[in-house]
Amino acid sequence: MTTAFPDPLRLQLQQTGVIAVLMIDRVEDAAPLARALLAGGVNTIELTLRTFAALQCLRRIRDEVPEMTIGVGTILTPQQVNDAKDNGASFGVAPGMNPRVVAEAMRIGLPFAPGVCTPTDIELAVEAGCRVLKFFPSEHSGGLAYLRAISAPFAHLGVEFIPLGGVGAGNAAHYLREPSVLALGGSWLAPKEIIAKGGWDLITALAREATDIVKQVRP
């Protein structure tokens, strides 16, 4: 098996440019939130396992908003790898590079992007068969200049990155112009406080703003 992202999924991530990173506390918010993001042009999410409702939200979106591509984030254990796939996730994401977690993703065939922050992290991820990596926490680690420096020795291997952490509308274009950046992790698109208030129109506006930036940089 493999942790590689299949070409159709990679192309979709490159085209959408921004993956909405979500923490949802209430299952009833899941489908309206997904529809709000789609209305703004964002068709891929990373639903984080940071709430007790996360897997129920995954199933709700899968069933009621099938146009949305759903990844699962904050995967910390091999069991959560299986939970993600069993509930319909298209890919998995982790904040760090845990060899046991990546090995389980490979065993069951779940496309997986481990988190990296150092050259050693990248080397371990590449050795484990991963080519799409989450760069986290991006801005706090040195931003795009740092990413260029640590990724240079691996560029010939076709490694691509999804930066997350301190990335927003103000610097999104800066990152999206970098050839090694596949897409951005968009935690700013749907803050928890806006989800709690049911601010779907605002979330659509934030998604549309991000989509417009992607279209300007990647026409």
What would you note in describing this structure?
- With 219 residues, the chain is of the alpha/beta class.
- Helix content is 46%, strand content 15%.
- The chain is built from eleven helices and nine strands.
- The chain has a six-stranded parallel β-sheet. It has a three-stranded parallel β-sheet with strand order 6-7-8.
- The chain is globular and about 45 Å long.
- The N and C termini lie far apart (34 Å).
- The model has no long low-confidence stretch (mean pLDDT 97).
What is the structure about, briefly put?
The chain is of the alpha/beta class and 219 residues long. The chain has helices at 7-16, 30-39, 54-64, 78-86, 99-108, 119-127, 138-141, 143-151, 172-176, 192-196, 200-217; strands at residues 18-22, 44-48, 69-73, 91-93, 112-113, 115-116, 132-135, 160-163, 184-186. α5 (99-108) links the parallel β4 (91-93) and β5.
